[in-house]
Write a structure and sequence with these properties.
The complex is a heterodimer of chains A (about 325) and B (about 280).
Chain A: H1 2-22, H2 27-52, H3 61-76, H4 82-104, H5 109-129, H6 131-134, E1 140-141, E2 147-148, E3 151-152, H7 156-179, H8 181-191, H9 193-198, H10 203-229, E4 231-232, H11 239-251, H12 259-275, H13 281-295, H14 300-315
Antiparallel strand pairs in A: 1-4, 2-3
Helix pairs in contact in A: 1-7, 2-7, 2-10, 2-11, 2-12, 3-4, 3-5, 3-10, 4-10, 8-10, 11-12, 11-13
Chain B: H1 2-32, H2 39-57, H3 60-81, H4 90-112, E1 128-131, E2 134-137, H5 138-160, H6 162-172, H7 174-179, H8 184-210, H9 216-231, H10 236-256, H11 266-275
Antiparallel strand pairs in B: 1-2
Helix pairs in contact in B: 1-5, 1-8, 1-9, 1-10, 2-3, 2-4, 2-8, 2-9, 3-8, 5-6, 9-10
Classes of the chains: A mainly alpha (about 325), B mainly alpha (about 280).
Amino acid sequence: MTENRWGLWSAIAFVLIAAALGGAIPSYDTGLLTQMLIYGIFAMSLDVLHGYTGMPSLGHAAYFGLAAYVTAICTLKLGWGFAAAGSAGIAASAIAAALFHLLALRTSHSYYLMITLAFSQVLWSLAVSWTDVTGGDNGLPGVMRPHIGLWSLGSTVGYFYFVLAIFVVVAAMLYIFVSSPLGYALRGIRDNEMRMRALGYHVWAYKYLASIVSAAFAGVAGELYMFLNSFVSPSTLSVTVSAQVLMMILVGAAGTLFGPVLGAVVFVLLQYVLSTYTDRWLFVIGVIYVLLALYAPQGALIYLRDRLKARRRSLG
Amino acid sequence: MNFWVINTLNGLSLAMILFLLAAGLTLIFGLMRIINMAHGSFYLLGGYIAISAIRLTGDFGTGALLAVVAVAVVGVIVQRLFLARLYKQEMPQALLTLGLLFIVADFAFFTWGGDPLLVPEPRLLQGGVRFFGVVYPLYRLFLIAWGLATAIFLWAFLERTKIGAIVRAGMDDEEMVRGLGINMPLVFTAIFALGAALAAIGGVLGGPLLGMFPGADFEVALLAFVVVTVGGLGSIRGAFLGSLLVGLVDNFGNVWFPQLSLFTIFVPMVIVLALRPTGLMGRV
């Protein structure tokens, strides 16, 4: 419980600092903050599935990219409004997860890891080859950010505050979700599925629900990301994106809602700092994965905290 | 008629490349419970090293052998240095190999560049063969024969030799095998190296058809994942059946529904998993 509160306070502090900084710093940095918030939403959504329910997905980019594509297509080709296109994207991700998990829930652990990977890769290949609808490798450019009343999302700062507002709403919703009896049931399934079944929980239904919730919020992040760039391409569906979001929750401690947000912050900073020194980003991701696997499978932040504790104990 | 003969053979030759990967994947998982995300990296390294080695030595056989041995050595290093330290930790092992996938992809890109490269066909196997009124490339027929021979070899190795018996026993109850005084860490390393070598052979022999390019590692590994999901993890027979199914479906899918591409391989996967969640020949 104390751990949760620590995470909650740091999340609130992060939001307040971001809100204060957002309008005051150069617009490039505001863009970075926006990215952190979007990846934060994405990481939290995967955490519901991986961290809380114990379903290791390596295909979460599927829902991120699908919602982005559906929203872009509805806006560009069908001329739908912002709210309608946005809802359609989120619905598409939720429905895709609902259909896919009729199949995927027949598998567990390693099989689940592989089948989610395959699923995202199938969507990726559709995006590449179904050129009439998706624009193929060129993607779909030119999705403009709209006005909401007097609030223009076109400017960097205006969009930043919009994303911040969405982030707060999503974080609050997910916080309530994982703190509810339902959230505790998910943790129970993660820790001991057999026992939960013996206690009379309908494990399948809980997992099914978690996967749909997770996909819908990943869709929210995907749309925000698409509007940030005014562009969507097959790379939003790629395994690299799936691996990056998984890395965020592994850096930030899976199974704590706000740890992954910190992971997202670290990730964006790292990408920003390193991109000035090297373009070998894949190599960096690879090394981080190897180090995480060898030394801190519970999460880099948990590893650091335990090291600090151990040190304090040896000093005291 | 021609259409069916040619496309069936094309599907079979893809199936044999997939089998070379899937066999190693399934052996490594069956024995060590490792989902080797980096299996495609062994394929990619095999193909690329063969290209350079053939260029250097001017001979397909020598180059191919060098590539396979080099990749087997890489496999031994990966297993001894990294994976052995994460014994029986399924998730960290998968993450570690995922990291290696990225590292090797980056290394290959900076060493061999971004343009697709073909492994040259061996001179002996160039040209075509005429039968059933079609002319079919000799090399692809060789590939199919090689795949069948590998399948028979692996079957005989696992079912008819003492080491094979140890491997099968290790899949069922590793601790008991250890208790009988057998050096399991050595068996682990050997099987991992064997899997890496098979994947490298897949790269060398598949290279003239599919080519080596950034992302080839992942593309072919993904198909191999589908193969073992369909066939059942841990079973060589399953890997073989799965390869045939995926190879044929992927080939005919690409012919009939080119826009759907990978989507078609999802169909056999849905059907098999709906009927048998652990795959056709899956161990429980």
